[in-house]
Design goal:
single chain, 261 residues, alpha/beta, 2 domains, elongated, 2-enoyl-CoA Hydratase, Chain A, domain 1
């Protein structure tokens, strides 16, 4: 008799770090596409600890996750921080579970850039610019923005903000105006976020997996998924981690020795 192997699983993907830098869409794109196509992955759990990141990267990943949610249950689990773009990713999930000590929210958009005009002047550095249009160097670091440029930059921010509000309103089944009341850019502890309707329940990753199992009717078999690392990353990552651990241990040892003097 041939014993059939049950391939049904709940997939878990970590979203740790800044979206766009540590969490790069180009790296996660293939992984998310494989989850969407894999019939053996009956549900997906996003293990999130991220302060957010760039608008474009967050929006791109949100839409990739939302595509998975059209075919199978998706549960977001916030263990530390689920803010800004990371909270946008939560909005692609059917359910959001957060640790009681997690920070949730920061719904909003911000653009920050240094203005080096005075510093360059003190250094005697001049910047020569040839451009095809008046706004081609809008946002340049070497000069202040003109009032017209400020207006256009603010319009871009406002447009991205309204898109974010619409995403939250749709995901959390709230009116846009209600979302705007809490979309001030502030973060909330998870219990308060639950009161505000930003998450569904308090709990850890295990609870999120339980929810995914309940929704998908799949066995509680977990498959941890991660983007493929390049050869150089596979070779040097263990060395880098070992070096960091050694440095950290040496610092702690010296602090402890100094405390005894």
């Amino acid at each position: 008799m041939v014993k059939l192997i049950n391939r049904k699983r709940v997939g878990v993907i970590q979203i740790f770090g800044t979206i766009g830098a540590g969490v790069r869409p180009v790296v996660y794109e293939d992984l998310l596409a494989s989850v969407q196509k894999d019939s053996g992955i009956k549900a997906l759990v996003l293990d999130i600890d991220s302060p957010g990141g760039s608008v474009s990267a967050s929006d791109y990943l949100y839409r990739k996750i939302a595509a998975i949610a059209e075919k199978k249950p998706v549960v977001a689990s916030v263990r530390g921080t689920g803010a800004s773009g990371a909270y946008m990713l939560c909005c692609a999930a059917h359910r959001v579970v957060a640790s009681p000590g997690a920070l949730i929210g920061s719904i909003g958009v911000i653009s920050v850039r240094p203005v080096l005009e005075e510093l360059l002047g003190k250094l005697g550095v001049e910047v020569a610019v040839n451009k095809s249009g008046a706004l081609k160097d809008m946002g340049a670091l070497w000069r202040k923005a003109t009032p017209g440029e400020d207006k256009r930059l603010q319009a871009l921010i406002d447009e991205a903000y309204e898109d974010f509000v619409s995403i939250v309103a749709k995901a959390r089944k709230m009116d846009d105006d209600k979302v705007r009341e809490i979309a001030t850019g502030e973060v909330f502890w998870a219990p308060k976020a639950k009161e505000l309707g930003l998450i569904d329940e308090l709990g850890d990753l295990d609870r999120a997996i339980d929810v995914a199992v309940e929704m998908s009717k799949a066995p509680r078999k977990v498959k941890h998924l991660a983007p493929k690392k390049k050869l150089m990353e596979r070779l040097f990552s263990p060395f880098a981690e070992s070096l960091a651990d050694s440095v950290s241990a040496e610092i702690e040892r010296r602090i402890w020795l100094n405390s005894l003097k």
